[in-house]
Amino acid sequence: MSAYITLLTPMTDQECLLAALTELGFDATKVEVHETPVNLVGYAGDRRAQTANIVIRRQHVGAASNDVGFLASAMGYQAFVSGYDHPRFGSGWLTQLNARYQVLWTAKQDRLAAEERRRLEAERQRVVEAQRMAVHERAKKLGYIVKEAREGDKIRLVLVKRSY
């Protein structure tokens, strides 16, 4: 029975970790994701004490292999790799995985920041339009004519009241 080696990783985002595993050749449909950690299984089908939220079952790792797992923690996912599988899925492989993870995580952060900027700009546009409409309504009630001019992203409102 091969003992599991626990390797700490700085990876904290499940979506990016799963995508990185896929990029390193693991079929996404063969990687299990569990809300509650499940036991890993050894090469002989024996249930191990180690648990993980993300599991690559032994039949998808290689002949005579053990499950590879990732347990979620506040500090990042802990990788569980058996001593037998360590030459193939040890530190070097985890370095590659982390490199892909970092690229994906950075892209995700950029995408989220761009979405937030678009959301804030849309909100700003809604507020400006609501204020513009409020000025038009109030001016009309008070007998003013509103002349509107746009200069770039600015709106200039001029209220005109004719008195004879």
Helix-strand blueprint:
Layout: E1 4-8, H1 14-23, E2 31-41, E3 47-56, H2 58-61, E4 68-71, E5 78-82, H3 86-89, H4 91-141, E6 145-151, E7 154-160
Antiparallel strand pairs: 1-5, 2-3, 3-4, 4-5, 6-7
Helix pairs in contact: 1-4
Quick gist of this model?
The chain has about 160 residues and is of the alpha+beta class. Helix content is about 40%, strand content about 30%.
Care to count the β-strands? 7
Biggest sheet strand line-up: 1-5-4-3-2
First CA to last CA: what distance? 101 Å
| Uncertain regions spanning at least 5 consecutive residues | none
Helix vs. strand class:
alpha+beta
- Which quaternary structure do these chains form? single chain
The percent range for helix content is 40-55%
CA-based shape = rod-shaped
Q: What share of the residues does DSSP label as strand, in percent?
A: 25-35%
The helix tally amounts to: 4
Question: How many structural units, i.e. domains?
Answer: 2
Element string (H = helix, E = strand): EHEEHEEHHEE
In this structure, how is the largest beta sheet organized? 5 strands, antiparallel
Mean pLDDT figure: 92
How large, in whole angstroms, is the Cα Rg? 29 Å
Outline the structure in words:
Helix content is 42%, strand content 30%. It is an alpha+beta fold. The chain has two domains: 4-113; 117-160, no CATH class. The strands form two sheets. It has a five-stranded antiparallel β-sheet with strand order 1-5-4-3-2. It has a two-stranded antiparallel sheet with strand order 6-7. The mean pLDDT is 92.
